[in-house]
Design brief:
With 359 residues, this protein is α+β, with helices and mostly antiparallel strands. The protein is 48% helix and 17% strand.
Length: 359
């Protein structure tokens, strides 16, 4: 029995600082965001393996035109494209890969009354392989490992999206597709916040200013009237297209003179849909069980001087742990045993094709 939900984890940082990618990567932000979502979704399915795909596969899933992504960027047609040895990163897709590999993004987040700024590498490793079944040198397969912090976020600081809904949000312009998908990821954070608010008795809605909402859409509009006109069109159109992330919305004053804020509410059906239930328990326990194996195997030399396990847990290198966790060749037998033992404990049955409640 397969899990029939298309829920996928995305780092919370993408929604708490929803301008970070645009601030760092500009025109490449939309594609880099989709690379994160696409690779993360595949990595959580292929936990102890590698994520390989062709540009055609990426385009088919994420709704891009292959010719557009494979085309040399106009600014590089006269040369000056980034180049390492003989490999030029001059296409729309490969230039986005190059920037995600070369440039860290700085995420800002407010925690415990302070602002925290964190530098995060999007892509840690990129292999570009040529398909040996064809003579065309431009037939490439990409093997990507996301940055270790991004991978750790998928277990510790994440929100849930419906992967199919996300990838079906499309426009003829990459930038517009990016802004709408950015809003969808933001709404994943909103749902998480509303669920928490209801749990502690702090209301059942989320309120955001029209200025902040326009910032998420990546548009600059002068007057409040035009901002509301734009927001109304986008919210109504998206609500018609979405099946699982349905929302009710209205303009509210929020204590001010004018109704320059948007209030979002959700039905219980929507809130319940975005819940992994036992799947969340499984991944939390697997993360902890493999951490135990990692520490007892002495994989992190930086904590050898700590005497007790609680100190080792507190000071372990989480990035190094993620490198080991997702490695295809390190202690795979032990990791697979932990996977199956954890699955049996959480679901009460052995993992196989018939009893697959994860993927």
């Amino acid at each position: 029995m397969k899990n029939n939900k298309a829920l996928s984890r995305v780092p919370q940082s993408l929604s708490f600082d929803n301008k970070a990618l645009n601030r760092t990567y500009g025109e490449e932000a939309a594609i880099i965001r989709d690379i994160i979502v696409y690779v993360a979704n595949n990595q959580m399915i292929n936990l102890f393996g590698e994520v390989e795909f062709s540009i055609s596969e990426f385009c088919d899933v994420m709704g891009y035109n292959r010719t557009t992504l494979a085309r040399t960027l106009e600014k590089f047609r006269e040369g000056d494209a980034p180049q390492i040895d003989e490999h030029k990163f001059d296409s729309t897709f490969e230039y986005a890969l190059f920037r995600g590999l070369k440039e860290n993004v700085v995420f800002k987040r407010k925690r415990d009354g302070k602002e925290t700024f964190e530098s995060v590498q999007i892509i840690e490793k990129l292999d570009v392989l040529y398909d040996k079944t064809t003579r065309k040198l431009n037939k490439r397969i990409y093997n990507i490992r996301l940055g270790s912090k991004i991978l750790d976020y998928l277990f510790t600081e994440y929100n849930l999206i419906d992967f199919n809904e996300y990838r079906n949000i499309r426009s003829q312009q990459i930038s517009v597709t990016g802004s709408l998908r950015n809003f969808y990821i933001f709404m994943a954070r909103v749902i998480t916040q509303v669920k928490y608010n209801k749990k502690i008795g702090a209301g059942d809605s989320f309120i955001i200013s029209i200025d902040d909402l326009c910032g998420i859409y990546g548009v600059e509009i002068e007057t409040a009237k035009d901002k509301k006109k734009y927001i109304t069109r986008i919210l109504n159109n998206m609500n018609k297209e979405l099946s699982n992330l349905k929302y009710d919305w209205q303009y509210v004053k929020n204590g001010y003179r004018y109704a320059y804020f948007v209030e979002f509410k959700f039905t219980d059906k929507t809130l319940e849909y975005f819940d992994e239930q036992l799947k969340s328990v499984f991944f939390k326990q697997l993360y902890g069980n493999l951490k135990y194996i990692f520490l007892h195997a002495g994989k992190d030399a930086s904590i050898e001087n700590y005497k007790n396990m609680s100190e080792k847990y507190a000071n372990m290198d989480r990035e190094k742990y993620m490198e080991w966790f997702f490695s295809d060749d390190e202690d795979k037998a032990e990791k697979l045993k932990a996977f199956h033992d954890t699955y049996l404990k959480v679901y009460g049955c052995h993992y196989n094709e018939e009893n697959n409640f994860l993927f």
